[in-house]
Amino acid sequence: MIKKLDRLRRFEMIRTLAAVGLALGIAFLLVLFTSEQPLEALKAFAVGPVSKFRYIGNVIELAIPLLFTGLAVSVMFSANQFNLVSEGAFFIGAIGATWIATNFTLPGVIHPFVGILLAGVIGALVALIPTILKLKWNADVLVSSLMLNYIMMFLGFYFLNYHLRDPNAGDMASYKFPDSARLMKILPGTRVHTGLIIAIAAVILVYLFMYKTRWGYEIRMVGKNQNFAKYSGINVFRVILISQLLGGFLAGLGGGIEMLGMYTRFKYKMLPGFGWDGVIVAILARNNPALVPVGAFFLAYLRIGADIMSRTTDVSNQLVGIIQGVVIVLVAAEYFMSKRKNRIIYEESMADYSATKEAK
Amino acid sequence: MGKEVLAMKGITKVYPNGIVANKDINFSIDEGEIHALVGENGAGKSTLMKILFGLEKAQEGNVYLREQEVTFANPQDAIEHGVGMVHQHFMLVPSLTVAENLVLGVEPKQGLKFDEKTAQEQTASLSKQYSLEVDPAARVSDITVGTKQKVEILKALFRGAKILILDEPTAVLTPQETKELFEQLKFLKEKGHTIIFISHKLNEVKELCDRLTVMRQGTTVGTYQVADVTEEDISRLMVGRDVILKVDKKPVNPGKNILNVKDVTFVNEFGKNALKNVSFNLREGEILGVAGVEGNGQREIVDLITGLQKIQQGDIEIKGESIKEKNIRAIRDLGVSHVPEDRMVYGVAETESVKSNVMSYKYNAPEYTSKVMQKTKEIEDLASRLVVDYRIKCKNAEQPVKMLSGGNIQKVVVAREFFVEPDFIICDQPTRGIDVGAIEFIRKELVALREKGTAVLLNSADLNEVLELSDRLIVMHEGEIAGFFPDASQITEEELGLYMLGLKKQTAEEIRRAVQ
Amino acid sequence: MTSILEILGTAEFWYSVIRVTTPILFAALGALVSDSAGVINIALEGSMLWSAFAGVVFSAWFDSAWIGLLAAIIIGALIGLMLAYFALNLKTDIILSAIALNLMATGGTIFLLFVVSGDRGISSSLDSRVLPKVFEGLADKVPVIGPVIFGHNVLTYVAFILVFVTWFFLFKTPMGLRLRAVGENFHAAESVGISVKKIQYQALVLSGILSGLGGAFMSMGYVSWFSQGMTAGRGFIALAAKAMGGVSPIGTMIASLFFGFASALANYEAEITVPAEFVKMIPYIFTIVGLVVYASRKQAADKRSRQKAAEAAAAAKGGE
């Protein structure tokens, strides 16, 4: 009896891998047809990230913000809210951290801690907006969160331009962060910083929260069937609010950590896109925090590989965008390889049916 | 009767979620007869008809129409061959008119434009031809349930259906509308149409049909002349044993008052007076039945007591405490359980496991969670125990609820709501749409709860059930209590029907006895 | 530094409102058509981007603006087709499918631009064509509104004409009837043998074509080049416009004009005293406000219509 479930679950894993494989296959084909040096390009893409220690570091560095936005989106989607505000929350969280970094002097560990905390809080408040609009007036979360991302971008630029800008820096950039504000590097030879440790801790805590506590249970039930949750006595309103606040907090946190861990000034010229990446990671992880690291590192690897490929050959790194799209579609597709899946179910059911019939 | 017009041979169908709906089915009907298809829910009747109508594909088997083999790839195919289906849940577009719904797919045109006038004329003439009165220009969202069904039948006839499949057509009709329907069906039979009548209601089958086929657990058990079998015969064939339509109940020994409904008046979201000065009470160890045609206030009573709606006027007390300011959680904490009418919408989260669903009542209790973390082992033990105790047929407690049959899903709900041994339970249509075996089990469990002293409020549209299980009984009509009966065994279905339809009503004196 | 009121007084401003509304209107009509069939198309953003790209590339290659337009329309239809395939055949959630298509559009257009022309991010080396402006001579002939409504790009007039065409299609043709039936109760459509899938495919292709027109306008009318991310969220604003407009094409048009107004105002950032960033926010804030207003009014309207139905039912029952 248990066998059947395992066979299905194993098959689901194979399906995910197949989806990713197909996406990569399409990418490879594209490279083959558009590049003068396809083999070199593919080699750079596939093994570039592990060819130098520095590159491995790049993968880890990139995975850090992806872990945060991946967690953020997983939590928000678990409550069945298509809230895409993590992009804006990340951005404005980074601004918040910048403000703390450049306007205050605090001792070594406290300084970044406060910056990051503020980033998280701001992110949570931002995520609150589409949520409240939905809860109070039933306004579509998707559209309002998308709009809010742009608003946050402009708001962030306003702060940058009028309050945080260093007139002596060439580009539009903030004042330099004092060393006390920045996160420590922990892996020599790379730029990997303590944010990694915080990220891993976050993964563990969020997983435990979502699957081992009653609040996580409430969020998941609300996400699966709101009516059922309400009827069970769950305060749906409060649960949705909390889930979106938590998601926003994680996204904002990611922004603050990225800023204070990787940069010496705030230099973003547009939305960095980590929010959208978080969506992909969440989809790959099927909203399960425990699987978010898999998705995050995978995506980071793809990105760095594409970067290396674009720097050493004639293929644009935008290829990754195409891969991402295909992966989303296939992983989330129920009918991808469904014939095989249905065949398995059919065979197993017929076997069960015959067995019970004979037993009578 | 006439000769064989339709035959389905060796039909096998397995659904993607693993359920074997039809196994090697043979089914045939003769021209010009009204043929009943009976069986428990999950027996496979709906599936068989869906295959016939082209909505589903069988893995194996053939269908023969007038001796010619046919395969209906979709409903369009079936319709073209003269097979029409009237579904249980109406397939009408609310914002379109009756005429527009009727001609949908075969719309009369004037160049590029839709010819509304012709559509309405066609509707009117068909309506006259078959004595099924409808207003072609009326918007479907504005017409009654009975009229909607007429439109559904006309839709099938409009497309030339000679064979009509009706799926539980009387489920939503009043007794009066049912009578009308039967007359219309007999009229259609006279005109040469063949009718397949899917139903649970054996008394209707006896009244209307010529022959019947019994299905059980995905196979056909046999085909019989209706005149040759009794209702007991039929139900035995459906289940394989004598279905206990009678319930073994010890005499009622009521304890103290659990529920007090005081002068409750309620205006619903549509501005309608759904409840008018309703008062009654309920005591420990007794079952109070609520009978009535759906839409006469029963919904609101249940919603107000369970906390899904807020009290406007009057008051409701549970265990002496007013629930006016209480939310659902607080009401449940008083020891209240609720088996909801629509289990898929309210009763379960279908993509979640059996385990997740059975713990939703008690997930906050100290036995199953400490301050922060849940107690995994205790939860798993609970789930396993409930699967066994309530005979929930599933692979294991991790299986998603939606893979279970309707009866087993209801058992998940019942397990969760019953095992806590509530002081007060509201059961809303607890045995609707499930197989006889599950019905029997749940009724037994309900009576067992009553013996243990639970107060039970039973809202059921199944008159048989409400008469059998209830100790006391109230009948709702137009938001008021039309009748109160201190002893449910003293009243017949016919009399109950009169109160339900507002044809009879007790005096205020008699109704006040509902409060003791 | 001029004040906002002064700006509102110029014909130039209102001319630009109509101009700016054009792509939003196209996309919003696309959203309306697909929504009416019960499929949500949030890939309008990516679809417009691809179409804008195709327009530039093909008009340059074939030295003709009209071929560019044709390419844009075909590409738009193809994206609609792809969305339909992903959502209706592969059964990926339609929102996720659309997000995927949008992501592929952002990256894919830059990727292909580089492959095709060596340009990074903006089509500077491509000699693309532009669609013509029409009725320019009439601008002076009519007082006050002349300079506002004449002299626009041909596609602008097409957009507003399509409002009426869409209305006729949805409410006066059998095809439109079926589409609305599918959108409201697809079971009903199925029960009479209508292929829901086919109708939804058609709806998505139609909405793709409409967004294709919007994209063509962007790169061959609004400006005459393709640059990365040039749609800047217009596809999403169009969704809000459709949401506000409800089921009526006229309503959609009015809502689109509303957002066009906000966007046009944002273009005057240099001249308004308020910090530029806040001015740029205006269309997006307007969208959210509009969304909330629409949603709360819909709640009230739903309530009223259910009330009506219940009253009718009660009256009918009483009559029996």
Please characterize this protein's 3D structure.
The complex is a heterotrimer of chains A (360), B (516) and C (320). Chain A contains 14 helices and no strands. By secondary structure, chain A is mostly helical. Chain A starts with a helix and ends with a helix. Chain B folds into 3 domains: 4-239, 3-Layer(aba) Sandwich (Rossmann fold), CATH 3.40.50; 254-335 and 423-432 and 455-516, P-loop containing nucleotide triphosphate hydrolases (Rossmann fold), CATH 3.40.50; 338-419, no CATH class. Chain B has helices spanning 45-52, 75-80, 98-103, 116-129, 145-158, 175-190, 202-208, 231-239, 298-306, 328-333, 343-347, 354-358, 376-389, 406-419, 436-451, 463-469, 493-500, 508-512, and strands at 4-14, 20-30, 34-39, 60-65, 68-70, 83-86, 109-110, 113-114, 163-167, 194-198, 211-216, 219-225, 257-267, 273-283, 287-291, 313-318, 321-322, 336-339, 424-428, 455-459, 472-477, 480-485. In chain B, the strands form 5 sheets. A 6-stranded mixed beta sheet of chain B has the order 6-9-10-3-11-12, sandwiched between helices. In chain B, helix 14 (406-419) packs parallel to helix 15 (436-451). The longest helix of chain B is centred in the middle third of the chain and has 16 residues, at 175-190. Chain C has 320 residues and is mainly alpha-helical. Chain C has one domain (4-319): ABC transporter involved in vitamin B12 uptake, BtuC. In chain C, helix 3 (44-61) packs parallel to helix 5 (94-117), helix 4 runs antiparallel to helix 5 and helix 12 runs antiparallel to helix 13 (276-319). The model of chain C is unreliable at 316-320 (pLDDT under 50). Chains in contact: A-B, A-C, B-C.
